[in-house]
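Posting for a labmate who doesn't have an account.
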Amino acid sequence: MRKWRKILRVAGKFALWIVAVLVAYALVGTILSLIPVGGSAEPGGDVVVYLMRSDVHTDIVVPTRTERIDWSTVVPPGDTSDKVAREYLAFGWGSQDFYLNVPEWSDLTPGVAIKAISGTGGTALHTTYKNEPTVGAKCRRLSLSSAQYDALVQYILASGKRSELGAFMRIDHKGYNQSDAFYEGTGRYSPVFTCNTWANSALKVCGQKGCLWTFLPHPIFWKYPLENQ
């Protein structure tokens, strides 16, 4: 009986420790996400990009072809099921295990969650060819100068592994729909650097408004009120 009481006490302390860590993480994340950073005095330019989000994830959406870069040479349309290069291309970055094995929240397992949080499973870029997005509750429009867009291009290119020919290295996966594909990512996913942290950093790199730090998509969008669009 004493042995079981001791085990229960230890388990209880461990559970309280886990709860305390999660509460602290959420609290710190909330505070830091409310602190705005970035934003450039440089006037916006002619390159239109978009922010798109789901309830848990943020994508950076760029024009497929500009004078700066033709993304179809880096993300070949032939890698998608419908093999069509539309007007815009969405980029997201995150845990490879999470991306490939959790298309829906109902597919999430403790093993996948632990592997993603630990950062031991590698990372991936998720790309989706799109028609021009429509501004709304989950979409914002940004205008970038040539220099700002160049910085964003360099950031995205550095986020994926590339072949000798310059194309991203595709992961053998059927994708979520007819227009998307997965590629080998660079960097390490962790509770400190999540998919939304990646998108937030992309904005700051190209002189746009962002959060001091965030692991959620909503605080990013708070920096871009819909009524200002």
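Reply:
Got it, the structure tokens are right above this. Residues 2-33 form the longest helix (32 residues).
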